[in-house]
Design goal:
Layout: H1 3-33, H2 40-48, E1 62-69, H3 76-83, E2 92-98, H4 127-142, E3 146-153, E4 157-158, H5 162-170, E5 185-188, H6 196-200, E6 225-227, H7 228-236, H8 241-244, H9 260-269, E7 273-275, E8 279-281, H10 301-308, E9 319-321, H11 328-333, H12 335-339
Parallel strand pairs: 1-2, 1-3, 5-7, 8-9
Antiparallel strand pairs: 3-6, 4-9
Helix pairs in contact: 2-4, 2-7, 4-7
Length: about 350
């Protein structure tokens, strides 16, 4: 046989082997370039589902509480008191993204085992963005009645009763601050910060272009309360995500979870965002990117009252962080009379 014929013959024989190996080669390459590649099906289903809340239905809309944790849910007993005013779960649903490599427990089954399929997360990395999107997607698919999506950590606590929180979000009275937030998301969006430009350059010079020019780059708290419309926008996005999923190349820590959500929603629907969060955080004396950590000695009725106070846009704080696990006992001592007292007293 002539050399050209031999080459053609061996190429023909190698085709089955090539087809056998190619799926593995392609999938490996695709996954390495996209940390949430195997989540794409979940995200697609969450944004294309045809389940809708019927306007003619007497069913009430719900709040989806999304817990992002990598350790035990230390404040589960306090949240149990918070949720117990609605034992039939007419007002809320719970979803937990727990680090699959750690033994995260649900003491007493407070959260009803609502653990979603999760992946390991790392601080100052895009994995925290992926985890939040995973929570949103599961909550969108699970119940069309979920109309608000509140992201929490294991260090968060409620500052009011469940019914007060629910009424603040859904029962708009003409003269209340909540009425001005109708159909709006509570997410912090900051356009001026001392190190904003350094954060923008964390992935390299001009890397964010053209999708995210510097004048559109924003920063804010990673803890938000989104409307269903905005939750779908976040889950659906691929354009900005391909930039924010890139690793940081700077020596200083980068916090992409504090950049991605405020930047995306500021760019696509700023007018329907309040620009502020409902979760109070104390950055006094912060270190290494961590806010002030409250200790048992600091817990008091006065502290709860101070944490509730409205922000500069006159929205109340409904939740707060960051509390050490040892705070559970003093918090439970004042839970019934102060924290989850089911009344309409806004401030102490």
């Amino acid at each position: 046989m002539s050399p050209p014929i031999l080459v053609s013959f061996f190429l023909f024989l190698s085709l089955p082997l090539l087809f056998l190996l190619s799926p593995h080669l392609l999938s490996t390459t695709h996954f390495s370039s996209s940390p949430d590649a195997d989540d794409l099906s979940l995200f697609r289903r969450a944004t294309t589902t045809t389940r809708h809340l019927s306007t003619a239905s007497n069913q009430k809309p719900k709040i989806a509480f999304l817990f992002l944790t990598n350790s035990n849910l230390s404040f589960a007993p306090l949240w149990q008191k918070f949720f117990s005013s609605d034992p039939n779960r007419h007002l809320f649903n719970i979803y937990i993204h727990a680090d699959p490599t750690s033994a995260v427990a649900d003491p007493g089954g407070v959260f009803h085992g609502r653990f979603i399929p999760s992946k390991k997360t790392y601080r100052s990395s895009p994995t925290l963005i992926s985890a939040a999107r995973r929570l949103l997607a599961n909550a969108l698919l699970d119940d069309p009645l979920n109309q608000y999506f509140a992201l929490m950590s294991q260090h968060c606590i409620p500052l009011f009763s469940l019914r007060f929180v629910y009424n603040y979000l859904f029962e708009r009275s003409p003269n209340s601050a909540a009425s001005r937030a109708n159909h709006r998301s509570f997410i912090e969006i900051i356009s001026h910060e001392s190190n904003l430009y350094e954060r923008y350059l964390a992935r390299g010079v001009d890397v964010m272009l053209p999708e995210v020019p510097y004048h559109h780059f924003r920063v804010g708290s990673q803890f938000f309360t989104l409307t269903r419309h905005h939750a779908k926008l976040v889950v659906k996005d691929q354009r900005l995500w391909k930039k924010f999923r890139l690793p940081s190349i700077t020596e200083d820590p980068s916090y992409p979870e504090e950049h991605y959500f405020p930047t995306l929603l500021s760019m696509v629907d700023r007018n329907c965002c309040t620009g502020s969060t409902l979760t109070r955080v104390n950055w006094t004396g912060s270190w290494n990117g961590h806010p002030h950590l409250y200790t048992p000695e600091e817990v008091s009725p006065e502290l709860i009252c101070n944490l509730r106070e409205p922000n500069s846009r006159n929205y109340l704080h409904l939740f707060a962080r960051k509390f050490s696990p040892e705070c559970l006992v003093p918090l439970m001592d004042i839970a019934d009379d102060v924290i989850i007292r089911d009344n309409e007293v806004v401030l102490c």
